[in-house]
Amino acid sequence: MPGARSWYVSAFTIGVLMFAALWFVIDSRARVSAESVAEPIALRWVLPHPPEELFDEAKKIFAEELRDGSGGTLELTTTYFPNELGIEAGDHAFMQLLDDGKAEMVTDYVEHMGQHQYKFLALTLPYLFDDYNSALEFLDGPGAKPLLESLSEESPYHALAFTMSGGFRIFVSKDTPIEKPDDLRGMRVLNAFGGKIIDATAEALGYHSTFDIRSETNPTLELLDGFDATETTYTRIDRLLDNVPSFARYVTETDHAISLTVLVVTNEFYNSLSPQEQKALEKAAQDAARAEKRASIAMTEPMRKRLRELGATVVVLSPEQKVRFKDAVRPVREIYDGKFESVLQYLQSD
Q: Which domains are seen in the chain, by residue range?
């Protein structure tokens, strides 16, 4: 039956055409959907200073949590150290990298952030924390949150978490052990910190403080010439031991102040993110900061060991000796505590 056969052919042809059309629509939609998925937002992070291993765990935690928490829309693509970008560690150009769009996040010094939010300088006060436990209780606790949030209220920057990248400050001296405040009197001390509170602390303890960022990044024999001691931290002492090990004859753990850093992005970048992405960024930063602080504290004992192997004497002050130093810097606290009352109240509540 020719008519029936013709009908079957026509129906088959129509079916094939309909299937082809349907497949074209499905395939087109799939391709449009794939093409419409945006590339992850790349995040470049500038770290404050070597050694690189100090940040290894923090970088890993941050990258994984940022990717997973954002559902893959945020990705840590690159980490830099300052010298890779042509700037010195501790240089004020850190924040300019954010402003110029050359980085999305930096770890900058608390002393630098004090230019944008004065309250941050409260964390540079002498003998603010008795030990690392009390420091971590505040820095990782609810007391630090209002301080972090205050940065975006006064500046174009958003603070995510406090990091350490330093720890308690110590004195390294070449000729005289420092066991009491009078041992510092008249000494010429090189430091990489700077700032009004640090200068006031030096004045209270009777030593002459000279700021030079190279004492952290490249402490050479020429740079140290004419100085009796340097103020540093265990996380930053390795360059000194590499370059001029003979200078480090005595190391005194005065722990008279704590060196801190903070993870910062711009308000513009933060506000451009979705609520889920903001939450992922905050959590990744806070967990990475905890890891970095652990790593900073953990460097203390290996550095003590290395110093002793080099023939240095490590002076660990007794509680009574520390009281003498605290008494000596009391005038600094009397001057500045009132200026930072809104911050210190959170410390006292902890």
A: 41-349 (3.40.190.170)
300: Cβ–Cβ under 8 A, 6 or more apart, which residues?
167, 234
Beta carbons within 8 Å of 187's beta carbon, 6+ residues apart: 173, 176, 207, 208, 228, 229
Which H/E stretch holds residue 333? helix 330-336
pLDDT over 60 at 37, yes or no = no
First to last CA, the chain: 95
d(CA 43, CA 66): 10
- C-beta atoms surrounding 61 within 10 Å: 19
The three-state secondary structure class of 77 is strand
Distance CA 249, CA 251 (A): 7
Return the top range by mean pLDDT from 27-41, 79-93, 163-177: 163-177
The answer to whether the peptide bond before residue 48 is cis (omega within 30 degrees of 0) is no
Three-state secondary structure call for residue 181: helix
**What is residue 287's predicted lDDT score, i.e. its pLDDT?**
98
* Alpha-carbon gap, residue 85 to 55, rounded angstroms: 18
User: Quick one: 86 exposed, middle or buried, by C-beta within 10 A (0-12, 13-18, 19+)?
Assistant: exposed
* Cα gap 133→142, rounded to integer Å: 15
Count other C-beta atoms under 10 Å from residue 148's C-beta.
21
Adjacent-strand bridge partners of 168: 258
